[in-house]
Write a structure and sequence with these properties.
The structure is a homodimer of 392-residue chains.
Chain A lengths: L2 E8 L1 E5 L4 E3 L4 E2 L3 E5 L6 E9 L6 E4 L2 E3 L4 H31 L15 E8 L10 H15 L6 H11 L11 E5 L10 E6 L7 E8 L8 H11 L3 H21 L3 H20 L10 H17 L4 E4 L6 E6 L3 H12 L19 E8 L5 E3 L15
Parallel strand pairs in A: 7-9
Antiparallel strand pairs in A: 1-6, 1-16, 2-5, 3-4, 5-10, 6-9, 7-8, 10-11, 12-14, 12-15, 13-14
């Protein structure tokens, strides 16, 4: 007997950045953050979680390769989910006993003891890992959601976000669609450090994103060690989290509620810049933006300046890739400005604009939009033996 | 009759950065700064100032080209110097009258009324302007020093630094050799915003500098407008000047007095990084470091890490050029690390080390050292007609 459930989960891109942990083990952040969930049509992780009394060990296949589940973070997530399942099973057992006492003939369905079964998990992204797009958020969100579905947990998305957070901080924001806030919380246990919805996709469905995948030969500083270095060495960082982020958090939420793109865009750009500023103020300094990233920034600044208003907003995570947000009504303005210099790369989906000088440094574009949170799907990645279909 | 005087003045490179004006007209800074004066053997401006009753207008020839003196900043400098000269002349006149009363026969020498004569000024750099090295500091320091010498002003270097400051803020620091502090001052008049010596060249003569001239096709944001943008838009900037710089100023002075290269170097690198961080936190963001600058930073960080101590310290002004400070005792370590990737460009003065992979992006190196302040010289740039020798 194999029990299984499959879920897809989205990528999210922060507009108010998460950078800095106050607790490394629990992934508790030094500040609250805000993100936009991107459409799963273009970027998503599909995960099938299965449990069976016949499985001999927990196993994970990621994009066709067997990967270790034996990291403290993944173990923390699995332990939390099994604990929640165990509670369900115990409650069911108790209910069954009570029922049995009351009516010896009634056949009450027993909840199978999945918490004691080993898990086989198969996970695939619909985008190349080589693109360097942060896939750990979608990955952990899909993992947690698939197991929660398999276990039939009645747990809310915010509750699940706290489990996903232990896997990868920003994964907690991928538990929701639309606009999402990760409230940093105050408790040492992390019980109040969770994602909440700021506004659903339906509030502002015309928000779009163009991702410029920037080629880079250098190895970026991993975000976990980068964050710690910034927390420990940047003299500007503490000021940012104490005095800049709290106000920006409120302003950005309001800009989203007001669908005020100019305000939302300006705050997004300023916060991306300030995140990279505190990286540069770290010692030794951390750089994620390269000369191509800077050209994209200048191109967007020029577009906004030419238009006399903010119609596009760039943001950069811990790498050189640019995400440019815009509203659908300004699509031709924004895409033609980007196409002018990057029209020669893949990903334009047949959109045609004038081309000028070709700039190197971008390997492809991904045109996408705001999207929904995790979705249950009937598409399964495992075969009847509980092994990945592709390798079956 | 032509009166003339010639002076050479040095370039200085800040180790604690000047970025931000609290008064644009008087060039009053938002924070104190510290610099090292570089040797005039490699980088200097030579200026001949001349005055004559026959000259019809104030004129300036800069590197062989007639340039306007008609900028508010230059006019402010000339007005101050003429005012000081006028006081001398009036005192001399008064003394002469007194003498004449006391002894009608005594011929007291009259101070000629140079303050009423027009000036011809000829100025030349011994380094290519194309190198993109800030030459305005040396230029204004030489201009002010040459006219002060011509006018035979008894004014101290700190007093003259206040006049140079009005021409170009950082020029005030080129009035001294060795290690120089520009004390920001508090007065609205700027009377207490002046350069002072931290330590002379003789205190630490073994300090050396390798300048890597970085090629760049883009036009940098001019520093004056860049500073104003940072002051107005960076939320981290005010914290820097209120809470970081005052302590760093004291620490860096102490590191210089202690000849503690590791401490001096670390503070220098951190302050360069923080200056570029507040530029990036400006809106729109200002970038001066390019990918080549970052490679130099990483190369220096790796060298220090391999050595287990700080033996080299990078600093970058408002452009991509790198200045790498080191102590003479570590010259082979530092130069061989730089030569490894940039050995193919000009400027190594016959120094030979191993070469590895050639990196592009640097057009030449300038190997120099700490140097003295302005020097009077008998070398004159004007001919007997009061015109530039080269064009005479």
């Amino acid at each position: 007997m194999i029990y299984q459930a499959s879920v897809t989960a989205p990528v999210n891109i922060a507009t108010l950045k998460y950078w800095g942990k106050r607790d490394k083990n629990l992934n508790l952040p030094t500040n609250s953050s805000i993100s936009v969930t991107l459409s799963q049509d273009d970027l998503r992780t599909l995960t099938t979680a299965s449990a069976s009394p016949d499985f001999e060990q927990d196993q994970l296949w990621l994009n066709g390769k067997l990967e270790s589940l034996d990291t403290p973070r993944t173990q923390a997530c699995l332990a939390d989910l099994r604990q929640l399942r165990k509670q369900l099973e115990e409650e069911s057992e108790k209910a069954q006993k009570n029922d049995a006492k009351a009516n010896a003939d009634a056949a009450v369905e027993v909840v199978p003891p999945l918490s004691r079964y080993k898990l086989h998990i198969v996970s695939e992204n619909n985008f190349p890992t080589a693109a360097g797009l942060a896939s750990s958020a979608a990955g952990f969100a899909a993992l947690i959601s698939a197991i929660a579905k398999l276990y039939q947990l009645p747990t809310s998305s915010s509750e699940l976000s706290k489990i996903a957070r232990k896997g990868s901080g920003s994964a907690c924001r991928s538990l929701f669609g639309g606009f999402v806030a990760w409230e940093m919380g105050q408790l040492a246990t992390g019980e109040d450090s969770q994602a909440v919805e700021v506004a659903p996709l339906s509030h502002w469905p015309s928000l779009k994103a163009a991702i410029l995948v920037v080629s880079d030969d250098k190895k970026d500083t991993p975000s976990t060690s980068g964050m710690q270095l910034t927390v420990q060495t940047s003299s500007l960082f503490q000021y940012r989290i104490d005095n800049v982020v709290p106000q920006r958090f409120q302003e950005m939420k309001q800009a989203i509620l007001d669908k005020d793109f100019a305000k939302f865009g300006r705050l997004t750009m300023q916060d991306s810049n300030q995140f990279h500023a505190v990286c540069l103020d770290s010692y030794p300094p951390i750089f994620y933006l390269n000369d191509t990233s800077k050209r994209v920034i200048k191109l967007v600044e020029k577009l906004n300046s030419d238009e006399g208003e903010i119609v596009a907003a760039y943001t950069f995570d811990a790498g050189p890739n640019a995400v440019v947000y815009y509203d659908e009504k300004d699509e031709d303005k924004v895409l033609s400005a980007l196409h002018r210099h990057f029209g020669h790369v893949d990903g334009w989906n047949g959109k045609k604009y004038e081309q000028e000088e070709q700039w190197s440094g971008v390997s492809r574009v991904i045109l996408t939009s705001i999207g929904v949170g995790p979705q249950v799907t009937s598409e399964s990645l495992i075969n009847e033996k509980g092994l990945p279909k592709s390798s079956g």
